[in-house]
Amino acid sequence: MARAENVNINLCAIVPVYRHESASRAVVEKLVSYGLSVVLVDDGNTLEGHEILEQIANEFPNVLLVTNKVNLGKGGAVRSGMIAAVDAGFTHALQVDADGQHDMGAIPFFVKAAKKHPNDMIGGFPQYDDSVPKSRESGRKITNFWVAIETLSREIPDAMCGFRVYPLATSLPAAKKFRNDRMGFDIEILVRLSWAGVKFRFYPIKVSYPKDGVSNFRLFHDNVAISLTHTKLCLGMLLRSPLILARRIFKK
Predict the structure, then answer these.
(1) I need a surface site. Which of 73, 86, 99, 186 has the fewest CB within 10 A?
(2) pTM of structure
(3) The 37-43 sheet, strands edge to edge
(4) Residue 87 burial class via C-beta count within 10 angstroms: exposed 0-12, middle 13-18, buried 19 and up
């Protein structure tokens, strides 16, 4: 059966925000300029930060502000955004980091890809410049190695890029099945979507790390948490390996 092409999907952008409220203004402005509705998630920012996000939501059209009273972490923020997006009638969501590190000029291409392949997960494959911290680059290589083991495939070349389009019909149920609310969310949801048989398509996205940017990555705590995530996913893979292997063998 031929795959549907250029389906009329209803797509919004989800921007999780914690300590990047000032930088998020330019991100929202760019998203709106491309005609996208925006779900802006205040993930437990200070009162001052919340007020800035309220100003942004009031300043730009079609921006919905979702507020988490306490900081849930990136995963919790994205999940809150997904729930709000589905409640608002959206079928797909473009996840974008609030710090402005992604090349927003790639948005039209990713939207077009989502319309052409509405059932697939559309992921960004990062193209870094010299601003990328070497520790981050090395950590990604380790994560991508383990993800290949956890999915018994090489269908996910990068599991940590925060620029991606979720088909919400499959992604939200997957996100609700686990409570990985912090940096491991980006990794775990892709692995679980792979286990569910969702197809992936990855496209290049330029990534630059702001020189004076605020990083929410906690070097020790988040690395430990990500290691625990991989341990859990490896155990999950062992339990599902017969089904995963059968899907690989009989995949058309």
Answers:
(1) 86
(2) 0.89
(3) 63-68, 37-43, 11-17, 92-95, 164-167, 121-128, 200-207
(4) exposed
How far is C-alpha 148 from the chain's CA centre?
Answer: 18
What percent helix, strand, coil does the chain show, rounded to 5?
A: 50, 20, 35
Nearest-angstrom CA–CA distance, 28 and 24: 6
pLDDT of residue 30 exceeding 90: yes
Beta-strand relationship, 164-167 and 121-128: antiparallel
Say which CATH architecture domain 11-250 belongs to. Answer: Alpha-Beta Complex (3.90)
* Stretch 81-99: mean pLDDT: 97
**What type of residue sits at position 36?**
L
* CA 143 – CA 145 distance, rounded (Å): 5
Q: Looking at this protein, which amino acid is placed at residue 60?
A: F
Q: Nearest-CA neighbor of 96 among 52, 168, 177, 41?
A: 41
Say what the pLDDT of residue 137 is: 72
The residues spanned by each domain of the chain are: 11-250
Share of the chain above pLDDT 90, in %: 74
- pLDDT confidence tier of residue 128, bands split at 50, 70 and 90: confident
Got the DSSP string for 112-138? HHHHHSTTSEEEEEEEE-TTS-HHHHH
